[in-house]
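CHAIN AND CONFORMATION:

***
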Amino acid sequence: MISVAIDGPSGAGKSTISRAAAKLFGFIYVDTGAIYRTIGLAAKLRGIDASDNEAVISMLTGLDIELRYNDSGEQCMLLNGADVSRDIRLPDVSMLASKVSAIPEVREYLVDMQRKMAQMHNVIMDGRDIGTVILPDADLKIFLTAGAEDRARRRYEELLQKGVETTFDMVLDELVKRDEQDTRRAAAPLKAADDAIVLDTSGNTLEQSVSEVCRLISERTGLTPEQAP
C-alpha cells in the first residue's frame, strides 16, 4: 500500500488539496481532523468542557465514531449513527477539536483507526501529526503551509459557501489561536517531520497547489494521475 502524509496548520488547504489529489490518483482520502472534530462535537453535545481531560477521556468509551464514504467518494463522519459531517465544520467545533486533540488518551484512542486505513488502502491522509506520529514510514510526507491571512481568507470563503455566518476578523483570530494551541500542545505538536517536503501555497490557486502535490506524488511513487488537475 502507498501512503502519503500531508500535515500543516489550519486553513492551509490540506483537506481540499488532499481530496483532489486522492481522486486523481484513485487513492482513499482520510481527513483525520474531521475525526477530532467529531470528538469535540461529542463533548459539546454532552455539555462537557473540552479542557476537562478526565471528562473527555471518560466520554470516549460511549462513542461510536465511524468514517464512511458517500457515492461521490466524499468522507462522511458518523457519531453514534448520525451524520455530523456538516456540524463538525462549525467554527466553535474547530477550537474544541484543538483542545481534545491535545489529550494524549484521545490521540491514542484514534491511532489504530487511522493506521488501519493506511494498511488496507492506498491513502492520502491529512492532519497535524500524520508524518511525525501516525504514519512515520509514509512513502511521502508533505507539510503544507501558507501565511495566516491567506489561510484565514480561504477558510472564511469556505465557511461563507457553507452558509456559516462569520467575519474575516473572527476567522483570522480563531486561526491564530488554533495555531498557538496546536504548536504548543505537549501531545504530538504540529510540526513538519524531518523528512517532509515543505510546500508553501501562499498566493497559489487551488489548481496550482493540487498540481504541485500531484507532481511530488508522481516523483516519489512513479504513478501518474488519472487526469490532469
Notes: The first strand starts at residue 3 and ends at 7. The chain has nine helices and eight strands. The mean pLDDT is 90.
